[in-house]
From TrEMBL, chain A:
Pfam families: BPD_transp_1 (PF00528). This is ABC transporter permease. Keywords: Cell membrane, Membrane, Transmembrane, Transmembrane helix, Transport. The keyword Transport applies. It is a multi-pass membrane protein. GO terms for biological process: transmembrane transport. The chain crosses the membrane at residues 70-98, 110-134, 140-160, 193-214, 243-264. The lineage of its organism: Bacteria, Bacillati, Actinomycetota, Actinomycetes, Micromonosporales. SUPFAM superfamilies: MetI-like. Belongs to the binding-protein-dependent transport system permease family. It comes from Actinoplanes nipponensis. It is found in: Cell membrane. GO terms for cellular component: plasma membrane. Residues 75-265 form the ABC transmembrane type-1 domain. Its main location: membrane.
Automatic annotation (TrEMBL), chain B:
Residues 1-23 form the signal peptide. This is Thiamine pyrimidine synthase. One of its GO terms (molecular function) is metal ion binding. It comes from Actinoplanes nipponensis. The lineage of its organism: Bacteria, Bacillati, Actinomycetota, Actinomycetes, Micromonosporales. Homodimer.
Amino acid sequence: MRRVLSALIGLVVLVALWEGYKAVGNPDGTVLLGVRILPRADDLSMPHVWDMLTRLGRPELTGGRPVWRVVLSAGLFTLGITTLGFAAGAVIGFLLAVAMQRFRLVERGLLPYVILSQTVPLVALAPLIAGWGGTIWPEWMTVAVIAAYLAFFPVAVGMLRGLQSPQAAGVELMRSYAAGWWRTLVKLRLPASLPYLFPALRLAGAAAVVGAVVGEISTGTRGGIGRLIIEYSREATSDPAKVYTAMLGAALLGLVVAALVSLLELPLMRHRRRVSVVTM
Amino acid sequence: MKKRLLPAAVLATALALTGCGTADTPSTPTPGASGALTPIKLQLQWFYQAQFAGYIAAVDQGFYREQGLDVQLLEGGVDIVPQTVLAQGKADYAVAWVPKALASREQGAGITDVGQIFARSGTYQVAWKDSGITKAADLKGKKVGNWGFGNEFELFAGMTKAGLDPGKDVTLVQQQFDMQALLKKEIDAAQAMSYNEYAQLLEAKNPATGALYQPGDFSVIDWKTEGSSMLQDAVWANTDKLNDPAYQQQTVKFLAGTIKGWAYCRDNAQACRDLVVAKGSKLGKSHQLWQMNEVNKLIWPAAGGIGVINDADWKQTVELSLTTKNQTGDTVLTKQPEGLAFTNDYIQQALTRAKAAGVDVNGTSFQPQTVTLTAGGA
């Protein structure tokens, strides 16, 4: 109840800030020494929140579906891609982390590349992967791959830290029980890694959303929220509120994914207590 | 995703990667020999819009099928470069602007212009009427918006031709793909395509009057009249494959279907607009009709027949590509295009074919419509 309330208050504050700035801000923006330091507050740059909401209710095009339904179905489409990308990324990240923990050599050899992988700009990567779309897999898979590519990283790195987190005493205790690598992994390292896993998963969730939206924009994959943002932003000249409806959809998508990821934590929560016992 | 409509393995699909009937097929089966259609992929520059209506109509009206081709249109995206897709063999043909495609050629893309569908350029520089800007020379000392990424060279060529040094005499501003900067008077003149961004201006409400902006509110510098226009949408083919007689035949057939498609859209602008809208374009109906009409103007009338590459226009495009410097001092090309940059061989054969089928390939009597834009283009 309290969380819902605070979330609502946050929303109200956000709206108040937006409208407040519109009320007091200079419609032409504030320019200091030739650099615009505050954005324009006119209706073209910052439509009223009310206009965005009413735009949601009006048809996308004459005789078409209302915008909210278009945005919603686009959001669902992207949610599907995000989920797939997130799941694939999390599994790959997890496996990489386990492999890196198990073999020092793999860690030394692979970790730099794992980090390097995130410095490759998506603009360079997307067209490359996009070429596979329609031949070896449907086009939306391209976007899921991009989402997975961004999502695996926090999991791999966070999980590795987690798997390495048990103190020497814990590891030695396991050894004194004559527990092998597998047992140590299951009984000690995995439970100990959970506190590291959760924030990593949240990061991965956010990264998957970004990857899916950017991937859609980049490859022009139709059906999703990224494509909608591009399409609507082309109409920003005459219908500025419309762009923001797509952005609202993207924001909503981010929230939903964040919520889903925290749901994922629930069944694992009970392990948390045991963790603290084992690693003491 | 229209591929899923293909009958093959509808249920088995979602993750079955190749089950969708789009797997690579041998590139040169004997076309139409056994009544089977040759699958062909055409890479477009952008999302479905009336700019590509001729291809869309040719698919929808079965003009490609008549030629024994099963053409699949591939939409573009922000980072999709059609000529690269073509050079990599991921598409059989591509639609691309000539200067940009020539630049890719110089970097090693083996592609050839086989059909210059747009004979004229649709690039404008739009200013407010009261700014007094009516020609390139008037841009001196003004804030001039440009798109960059190789879309800016007609503007730079025009300014250079008018005796301005684009690096010194004007303030260059990187322009977004909407026209807000001009409306907010952040810039004095904005780049616009006649069939797209210019229409967006006329779909926006003038806060002073409460009505839409009128053409009379703006002045337009048309690079065609300034003599710095470059060739735009053309059909590009793979140069290596053009040595293969089967691909040659297929190219002729593809162009013949394309010609018929564009002729259809010339005579049935409304119907073509509806086809584009039905393809799921998010741009409104009046906007698409405007675009259809403007695009028709870029093609028709076609004195030598649609798609024929005019030597003088080609030379001007190459010349400007070689000599025009943008703000960073780059030219589009560093040397004359080598090898087979363009050929009229296939379009001529295709024109003969189309004419034999009774298609008017010149559109001498073409009259543009008067399109009324509505708010937001809806």
